[in-house]
Amino acid sequence: MNTPFDLDPGTPRRSTLMSRLRASFLTGLVVIAPVGLTIWLIWSVVGWIDGFVLPLVPAAYHPDRMLQDFFGMDPSIQINVRGLGVIIFLMFTILIGWIAKGFIGRSLIRFAESLVERTPVVRTIYSGIKQISETIFAQSDRSFETACLIEYPRKGVWALGFISTDAKGEVALKADPTGPMVSVFLPTTPNPTSGFLLFFPKRDVIELDMTVEDAAKLVISAGLVYPSDRPVEVNADTVKKLRKS
Q1: Domain range annotation of the chain
Q2: Where would you tag: which of 18, 20, 79, 85 has the fewest CB atoms within 10 A of its CB?
Q3: Residue 162 in 3-state DSSP?
Q4: C-alpha to C-alpha distance for 227 and 148, rounded to whole angstroms
């Protein structure tokens, strides 16, 4: 496995013990850091969910209490058992989703939303959160499926974006009625959750072969992490765009 700190075998270099130890230490960090941060993040999220859900569960059914009663242990001995809150949360969410799919559930949701719509401040917060949740979690075609290149903020400067949907309605009609348009989300670096919504003529957008995940890594790393080499398919439209530019 090659790491960013491996010495180039073609370059003669006099290495000391400290330099070798330093290179080994940095290589170990490259290997350990992603694994350690991933485990820490999962452990923290599970603990956060447990801390929110377990207070709602009767104390007799807490996992630490059940283990103490089963093994006859001293109640003063604390046992940290994580994961029960996540299981309860998943089961509760599945139950709510199953009820919401039925006729009674849909009727209750419509009645509750009608009440929310009559509340001035609450309706604004609820509608915004609902739209974001539907965009992220709903199983639909409204998702980033293609990475692209656009000329932004001026001609000759290229930016990496994500094609969201085809522009429709008044935006497509008044912006450029001569051809189709697409809406492009232009993320910021290193935080891709913020950015700009831009509308481009479809002929001015160059679609990329890299996956959305690879493009997101490129944005988050500020251009340091490029996707692995893949055969690039260049069609006639792409050639025309490159020649014009």
Answers
A1: 146-244
A2: 18
A3: strand
A4: 14
| Rounded distance between C-alpha atoms, residue 133 and residue 180, angstroms | 28
Contacts of 165 (CB under 8 A, 6+ apart): 142, 182, 183
Residue 168's CB is within 10 A of a number of other CB atoms, namely 11
Pairing between strand 158-166 and 181-187? antiparallel
- CA proximity to 50, closest of 84, 80, 101: 84
Asked if 175 and 197 touch (Cβ cutoff 8 Å), the reply is no
Radius of gyration of the chain (CA): 26
Q: Would the pTM count as exceeding 0.70?
A: no
Q: Do 190 and 221 meet the contact criterion of CB atoms below 8 Å apart?
A: yes
| 3-state SS assignment for residue 234 | coil
Correct CATH for 146-244 of 1.25.40, 1.10.3470, 2.60.120, 2.30.30:
2.30.30
At 94-135, the pLDDT tens digits run 888 888 777 787 888 788 888 888 888 777 887 777 776 666
Which residues, 6+ apart, have CB-to-CB distance to 50 below 8 Å? 82, 83, 84, 85, 86
* Distant-in-sequence, close-in-space partners of 31: CB < 8 Å, separation ≥ 6: 3
Residue 150 has φ and ψ, to the nearest 5°, of -135, 155
Average pLDDT over residues 152-159: 92
For 11-55, write each residue's pLDDT tens digit.
445 568 888 787 777 777 776 777 777 788 888 888 888 788 877
Residues 143, 152 contacting (CB under 8 angstroms): no
- pLDDT band for position 238 (cuts 50, 70, 90): low
Distance between CA atoms of 78 and 53, rounded to whole angstroms?
19
Residue 114: what pLDDT? Answer: 84
